[in-house]
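ok new one. same drill as before - structure tokens go in, u give me an amino acid for every spot. 298 of them this time. try not to just spam alanines like last time pls lmao
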């Protein structure tokens, strides 16, 4: 099971705190301010050196995987209950209090766990389908539902992660976390360290490397600017994350979660049908499409 965002954050808040304080120190850029020519280049160079520090990445990876190994809750995953709790208690409708920011990282962990479970279900179902006729309607249904659910997952994960990040960044000066803690949050939501390993490992990160790097640069540049609390700076970071990086806003992310919930239920049913009614090769009449009907995915 890949590490959850809150587990990555835990490592940075403890073992990695000194490194982040150094990275976000006012003098970290060598005296170059956001009003100075070359500020963006200095930010990019500093962050690139930090992100590409192989020794540090290995240290992060080993520490986080050790945290994962110490998980105490080994109960079977109740996907239905986790989905309902995520929708109703954490990632709530915008008209009904919106995101529960206190439980948001917990919510991401639940959704990550469900996606990992879903991926394994798809793999098992596709393996079972190898014993069936290629024309079996189940194969088409399973693949279409998998493609749709994977797309929805990326959409809501990106939207929720960006929403959590922007909520922390736009807090009032009097209550906002120090820059080092915000970098810990950034490293948890959009990490550079690779944690997946082995042939069966699953990577639940919902972004490409290029998009991740753009997000990290935008946030670090914001933190290192002379006045990150100004209205202009707040508007700029919001535009960079949700418009320039083309990340769904919270409302669209929640809509994607609801559609993911629907697709996941249909996928589970399709996998169950395959388990109960497997059709060996040579049995299906290729001219008979059965009673599956037309499959339309929203």
């Amino acid at each position: 099971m890949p590490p959850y965002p809150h587990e990555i954050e835990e490592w940075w808040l403890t073992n990695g705190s000194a490194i982040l304080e150094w990275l976000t120190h006012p003098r970290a850029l060598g005296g170059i301010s956001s009003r100075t020519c070359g500020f963006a280049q200095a930010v990019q160079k500093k962050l690139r050196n930090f992100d590409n520090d192989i020794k540090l990445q290995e240290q992060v990876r080993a520490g986080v995987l050790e945290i994962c190994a110490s998980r105490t809750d080994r109960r079977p995953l109740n996907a239905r209950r986790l989905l309902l709790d995520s929708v109703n208690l954490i990632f709530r409708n915008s008209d009904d209090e919106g995101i529960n920011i206190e439980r948001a990282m917990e919510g991401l962990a639940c959704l990550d766990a469900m996606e990992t479970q879903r991926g394994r279900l798809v793999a098992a179902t596709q393996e079972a389908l190898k014993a069936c006729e290629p024309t079996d309607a189940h194969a088409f249904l399973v693949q279409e539902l998998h493609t749709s659910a994977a797309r929805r997952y990326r959409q809501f994960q990106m939207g929720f992660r960006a929403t959590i990040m922007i909520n922390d960044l736009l807090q009032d000066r009097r209550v906002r976390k120090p820059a080092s803690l915000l970098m810990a949050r950034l490293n948890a939501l959009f990490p550079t360290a690779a944690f997946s390993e082995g042939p069966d490992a699953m990577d639940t990160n919902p972004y490409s490397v290029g998009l991740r790097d753009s997000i990290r640069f935008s946030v670090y540049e914001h933190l290192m600017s002379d006045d990150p609390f100004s209205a202009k700076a707040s508007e700029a970071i919001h535009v960079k994350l949700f418009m320039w990086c083309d990340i769904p806003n919270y409302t669209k992310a929640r809509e994607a979660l609801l559609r993911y919930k629907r697709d996941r239920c249909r996928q589970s049913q399709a996998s169950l049908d395959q388990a109960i009614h497997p059709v060996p090769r040579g049995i299906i009449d290729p001219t008979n499409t059965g009673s599956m009907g037309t499959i339309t995915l929203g």
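Residues 5-27+36-273 form one domain. and btw The radius of gyration is 22 Å.
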